[in-house]
Amino acid sequence: MKRFMLHIRGNYFGVLCHNILLKTPKVLPCLFLYRHSPLRFLYSGSTNTRPFPDYSPKKPTIRDSELVHHISTTIKLRRSEPLRRILKPYESKFRPDHLIWVLMNIRSDYRLALDFYDWACLRRYPTLEARCIIIQVAVASGDLETAEQLINDFWTKPNLEISSSFALFAERLIYTYKDWGSDPRVFSIFFHVLVQAKSLHEARKLFDKLVNYGVVISIDACNFYLSQLSHDPDGHQALIKAFKEFPVVGVCWNTDSYNIIVHSFCRSKKIKEAHNLLLQMEERGCSPDVVSYSTIINGYCQAGELQSALKLVEEMQTAGLKPNSYTYNSIIFFLCESGKVIQAEKVMREMINHGVAADNVVYTTLINGFRKLGNVASAFSLFEEMQAQNIVPDVVTYTALICGFCESGKMVEADNMFSEMEKRGFRPDEVTYTALIDGYCKAGEMRKAFSLHNEMVSLGISPNVVTYTALSDGLCKSGDVDSANELLHEMRRKGLELNLCTYNSILNGHCKAGNIALAMKLMEDMEKAGIFPDSITYTTLMDAHCKMGQMTKAHNLLREMLDRGLEPTIVTFHVLMNGFCSLGMLEDAEQLLDWMLQKGINPNAAIYNSLMKQYCNRNNMRATNDIYRGMQARGVIPDEKTYNILIKGHCKARNMKEAWFLHQEMVEKGFRVSASSYNALVRGFLKRKRVSEARQIFEEMRQKEIVVDKEIYDLFVDMIYEEGNMGTILQLCDEVIENFLVDQAKDED
């Protein structure tokens, strides 16, 4: 589920942060000067702001002044020539102080000043003061990109001591500000570089320091700071603190700012707080946008509150905002995860009708939803639809379909989809390979499964614990438990942490092989490894004991399971019911059913079927009917097996009217009548001398190519011979030869 959740790439919070990132380094708005704002008193506690210091550099000597004059004059007069050539005579006398003095003389010519600074950098490292000066000149000249690069080059130096370097850099930048630039954008650029470098503590210190000088960082830079705080798993409190404190000094939050906070609340599962903030936005002069509403709608969906989400969609539309694909996909994803895929598809159709195009994410979500329901036909139909609309599927889309085909046992289709995926240039990952491997393991094609395993390893894709679990499960089901155990040891050697599914698959293999003692030993081993058995573990062991006729041991396992606080599943009860019924312990089976009902556990059709089958075998149709009526009274829907059991039971008891009614009802519901039920109906009608009904069923069986018992063929051959219909007799003889004699010959071969 995590994989498909991450696949929802329409995350507008990510888009928002990306937009902030694009805004801040290039064209940062001027800082907000709040020197005359009354809000500053609430923040600083003082009515006075500190003035920027005057710049007072070291004074040059007469000799230094002459050298500086010569260099300044030379580069101005010969600016078309390379600096490395015209300044070669001065290199031996040049010192870092000369750089600053020359810059004072040429500061009005930005390009010349930048070239001279670059020349100095190639020969000697400039001082931090010189770097701050050229940064100030660049910002004042409108070259923000160069200014950012100059700050970034310093800040990304290896082995930089961040805390001490921050203090020095901030001090030099403030010291050079008044006389070299006086353009407040320089501080936003520095703030942005700090945030981008994840030096959030230093960024906040810079913000507070600048407040003392009467300036506030621009809204876009502040938003970028909020977005980075929100990415920190432990940054929520710092984020909320900044959001509350920054307006006190004059930061006016905009819609982007609120959206960042709303997203953080939703990610922290504080949906009500996020919704309250949405309601407060307009009161504070900010209009919520599509991102604001969609983020909270997604939050409500993830919290399982669909009605709140739908209500918010209505409010959003009332506000004149049009839901987009992200808004709809949040609802579609929730419905799919809840198993309501039909409703999810209706939402997509409604979305398209409202002029919102469905994208790859929406289609993939629905495809995976139908896949989870086992409806791979509908999933594939959606896949074809998205291709017809030129919506390109991706690895996740293909993997969802491959999983669906594998789970349905359609390995040819899964293989074709895998080949198509590779032809289109998509690289399968461990999830794709694991799905195919699991499919082939379930199909008993272990050679193909291991071939795929070797292929993924050769491509550098590491099999995970799920891959190995699929392989071990396949080996166990094919009876090769020893190889499964070897695989278990290989997983340990590779450092993979075995999970409960791995142990359960091998434990199931031991049980199927009749090695219950080894299975019990494996359960002890897994507990020693810190992995505790679940209801599947106990149910598997109980099933093995039931099949061995050891009901007391199965009952003891149930007691142990309950003592551990594990809830038995419906499968657990089915296993016990089968155990009692197969041993003819019908009284115990009925007591189990009564106990389930007393505990409020609603049995499924399979549990009732086990009990009804045994009573039918004993020709006790009164008890069978009582169980069937109880089943219907409790709202349990009969399945195909239920009808086939009842039809055969009533036929055996010669209750042909009831058997025929059940047959008709079964066909109307679309269930398949088994061959044994058809044969039972023919025999029952013949025994009741109702030849026309028997012949009707017999002909229906022939049309549907359902195998008829040989003795029934013999009866109809004799019957039709007496009627003198030789053509039909010859046809019947051909069928007998084909269905029985030919098949028998094949078996003998």
Strand order of the largest sheet: 1-2
- Main pleated-sheet profile: 2 strands, antiparallel
For this structure, the CATH topology of the domain at 53-199 is Serine Threonine Protein Phosphatase 5, Tetratricopeptide repeat
Distance between the termini: 50 Å
Q: Strand-residue fraction?
A: under 5%
- Architecture of the domain at 53-199 in CATH? Alpha Horseshoe
Keywords: Repeat
Organism: Punica granatum
Family: Belongs to the PPR family. P subfamily.
Protein name: Pentatricopeptide repeat-containing protein At1g05670, mitochondrial
Describe it.
This is Pentatricopeptide repeat-containing protein At1g05670, mitochondrial. Keywords: Repeat. This protein has 749 residues and is mainly α. Among the domains are: 53-199, Alpha Horseshoe (Serine Threonine Protein Phosphatase 5, Tetratricopeptide repeat), CATH 1.25.40; 710-749. It contains 42 helices and two strands. The longest helix has 23 residues, at 726-748. It is elongated and about 140 Å long. The relative contact order is 0.04.
In short:
This protein is mainly α. The chain is built from 42 helices and two strands.
Strand-helix topology:
Layout: H1 2-6, H2 12-26, E1 32-33, H3 39-44, H4 62-77, H5 83-86, H6 96-106, H7 110-123, H8 128-140, H9 144-155, H10 162-180, H11 185-196, H12 200-211, E2 215-216, H13 219-231, H14 236-245, H15 255-267, H16 271-283, H17 290-302, H18 306-318, H19 325-337, H20 341-353, H21 360-373, H22 376-388, H23 395-407, H24 411-423, H25 430-442, H26 446-458, H27 465-477, H28 481-493, H29 500-512, H30 516-528, H31 535-547, H32 551-563, H33 570-582, H34 586-598, H35 605-617, H36 621-633, H37 640-652, H38 656-668, H39 675-687, H40 691-703, H41 710-723, H42 726-748
Antiparallel strand pairs: 1-2
Helix pairs in contact: 2-13, 4-6, 6-7, 6-8, 7-8, 8-9, 8-10, 9-11, 11-12, 11-13, 13-15, 14-15, 15-16, 15-17, 16-17, 17-18, 17-19, 19-20, 19-21, 20-21, 21-22, 21-23, 22-23, 23-24, 23-25, 24-25, 25-26, 25-27, 26-27, 27-28, 27-29, 28-29, 29-30, 29-31, 30-31, 31-32, 31-33, 33-34, 33-35, 34-35, ...
